[in-house]
């Protein structure tokens, strides 16, 4: 029997695995239903001008990598939306909020994972704001029991403390048994990963998980900031 419905709302393909891949695998091991929605396309911000047609092959390959990575974790469903990569500040905030509200109505999650606000990536920040707004506990809204914010290596740690709220985790998940699945899933995103000592390298992700684990006297962990919990 499914214990919880889990929804991960991420900006770009690979953010979901970097942020909470091992936790997703743990949810699946525990019998939970896990759905992933990736709102922005990825890649096109690397060009001077956005032109999906010139990136169609690359975007197709990145989408295939997203499906493969999440399949490795056992995720139940993956949805790829098409907001412009690193241009979500050019979209009315209400449009993003309405999209998230639609997702909440569709998936009816008990647990939502998304980006932390203290992040250098503008898409990450806009999605955080939209999810927080859509998850507000007012009468008539679907009840989300746990709202958690993840860190994304190569983005969250580069936000300076004086510029935005610092990522100071207060919720830790022991992923000692599922970390290897996360690292394997990241290998599917080989075009997005970098060589050590880049923080978005397999080795750096492993080191971060070991450090977060040591913080709670476990072999490995993923860390989150608790946005809200209702019991």
Automatic annotation (TrEMBL):
One Pfam family name is PIG-L
Query: What organism is the protein native to?
Result: Cohnella silvisoli
Q: What is this protein called?
A: PIG-L deacetylase family protein
Top-level taxon: Bacteria
């Amino acid at each position: 029997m499914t214990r919880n419905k889990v929804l991960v709302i991420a900006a770009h393909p690979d953010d979901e695995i970097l942020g909470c891949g091992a936790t997703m695998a743990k949810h699946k091991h525990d019998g939970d239903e896990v759905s992933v929605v990736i709102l922005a396309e990825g890649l096109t911000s690397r060009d001077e001008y956005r032109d999906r047609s010139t990136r169609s092959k690359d975007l197709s390959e990145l989408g295939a990598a997203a499906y493969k990575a999440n399949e490795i974790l056992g995720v139940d469903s993956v949805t790829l939306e098409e907001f412009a990569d690193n241009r979500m500040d050019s979209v009315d905030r209400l449009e993003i909020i309405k999209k998230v509200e639609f997702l909440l109505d569709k998936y009816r999650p008990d647990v939502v994972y998304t980006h932390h606000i203290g992040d250098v990536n503008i898409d990450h920040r806009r999605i955080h704001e939209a999810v927080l707004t859509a998850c507000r506990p007012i009468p008539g809204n679907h009840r989300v029991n746990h709202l958690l914010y993840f860190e994304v290596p190569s983005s969250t740690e580069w936000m300076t403390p004086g510029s935005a709220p610092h990522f100071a985790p207060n919720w830790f998940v022991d992923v000692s048994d599922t970390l290897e699945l996360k690292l394997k899933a990241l290998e599917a995103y080989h075009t997005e990963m970098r060589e050590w000592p880049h923080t978005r390298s397999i080795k750096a992700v492993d080191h971060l998980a070991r450090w977060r684990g040591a913080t709670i006297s476990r072999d490995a962990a993923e860390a989150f900031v608790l946005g809200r919990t209702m019991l």
